[in-house]
Design a protein that fits this description.
Helix content is 43%, strand content 16%. It has 390 residues and is of the alpha/beta class. It folds into two domains: 3-139, no CATH class; 143-385, 4-Layer Sandwich (Purple Acid Phosphatase, chain A, domain 2). The longest helix is centred in the N-terminal third of the chain and has 38 residues, at 65-102. It is elongated and about 80 Å long.
Length: 390
């Protein structure tokens, strides 16, 4: 990224941060008329929290890792809490406006206005604190296994019960490290999978910084191998270097290609395509569904690894039986999923269109704020059988 674009990016971040925190100050501190010295203390705290957001984005670039990590935790936790507070305050504003309109009130007395402001600030603050705490706990607790049965009409009877484990959107970085990866690997191995698929957005950082944290993935045990496709975040972090690193620890990358996997004398195809945005980064990257499907036996079932659900329509045109994707995080912090649905056809779970199905993982890690509200993380165990799709 050029220096000019970096300045524009941080200029936009600064403007949004300033405007948002002024609104929070107005609704949570000014309008409720907090008494001294709490007004000054709360204002100072809000200023520090506002600074923590751009600081957390710069920390990994300019600070030693042992300092960047706590700075990032403060900034990212506040970023998530700020979003929750904004949603609650906007909801409260709408409720207040609706009540005044319903009650046919054209004006409100000073005392009542102050009471309403205090009610809005107190309610949003208390509920926001509770939701944020729950969200952080939900994000940092050990990730659980989610079992998903999927029927594929082309699957041979001898392959019934084939176990495919999906990991997606782990986002190993400043707030997710080696301990998290080791715990995930232990849980995956306990499932005794036939196939392990990592559907992109594995990391947020360079191989030099994060290779040690990601290395335990090489200890995954699976009968038919471990496979990887790129997500958009790989391209922010040196995709080619990461592809080489993953190959060195025994993980096969599928780049617009498919492999025939055999078990008990029967075959299932596993295909993978580059991320939907990969073409923007050049150097031969870019999704090519036609190439990925070329030469396969169409009588055999094919499972496609594609980071973004938006790639499903093209997959259907190529007769894909099952696509597994991530990218959406299931919304991660409710109701952010409403915005995600504007650009992605599916938010999470299993869906069917014609003869094709797609499963969208809510993600194994998280991105940005270490928070999850109504969108728990998952290690997905997809259990295949060959009964006809309903």
């Amino acid at each position: 990224m050029s220096f000019g674009r970096i300045l524009i990016f941080f200029g936009v971040i600064f403007g949004l941060t300033l405007g948002t925190h002024y609104y929070l100050w107005a609704r949570l501190i000014r309008d409720p008329m907090l008494p001294s010295p709490w007004r000054q203390v709360a204002t100072a705290a809000l200023i520090v929290l506002a600074i923590s957001i751009p600081a957390s984005m710069l920390a990994w670039r300019i600070l030693p890792r042992n300092i960047a990590i706590p700075v990032s935790w403060v900034g990212y936790v506040w970023m998530g809490s700020m979003f929750v507070l904004l949603v609650l305050l906007w909801g409260g504003e709408l409720a207040r406006y609706s009540w005044m309109k319903y009650a046919s009130l054209t004006s409100v007395s000073g005392g009542r206005r102050e009471f309403l402001a205090q009610l809005l600030a107190g309610g949003a603050g208390a509920l926001g604190l509770a939701l944020s705490g729950w969200g952080v706990w939900s994000a940092i607790r050990p990730v659980e296994v989610k079992r998903v049965p999927v029927r594929l009409s082309k699957l041979p009877a001898s392959l019934n019960g084939l176990r495919l484990v999906q990991l997606s959107d782990m986002h190993v970085g400043l707030t997710i490290g080696r301990d998290f990866v080791e715990d995930v690997v232990r849980k995956v191995n306990d499932l005794e999978p036939d196939i392990v698929a990592i559907t992109g957005d594995l990391i947020d950082g360079s191989v030099d910084d994060l290779g040690h944290a990601v290395a335990p993935l090489g200890e995954i045990r699976s009968t038919l191998g471990t496979y990887f496709v790129t997500g958009n975040h790989e391209y922010y972090s040196g995709a080619d270097s990461w592809l080489g690193f993953l190959q060195s620890i025994g993980i096969r990358t599928l780049r617009n290609e498919h492999v025939a996997l055999e078990k008990d004398g029967e075959t299932i195809h596993l295909a993978g395509v580059d991320d939907w945005t990969a073409h923007q980064f050049g150097n031969g990257h870019g999704a090519d569904m036609t190439r990925a499907m070329a030469g396969r036996d169409t009588t055999k079932p094919v499972v496609l690894l594609a980071h973004q659900p938006v790639q499903f329509d093209e997959a259907r045109e190529h007769g894909v039986d099952l696509q597994i994707s991530g990218h959406t995080h299931g919304g991660q912090i409710f109701p952010f999923g409403v915005l995600t649905r504007l650009v992605q056809p599916f938010l999470s779970g299993l869906h069917q269109r014609g003869d094709s199905q797609i499963y969208v993982s809510s993600g194994t890690g998280y991105w940005g704020p270490p928070m999850r509200i109504a969108a728990p993380a998952e290690i997905t165990l997809i259990e295949l059988d060959g009964k006809a799709v309903a």
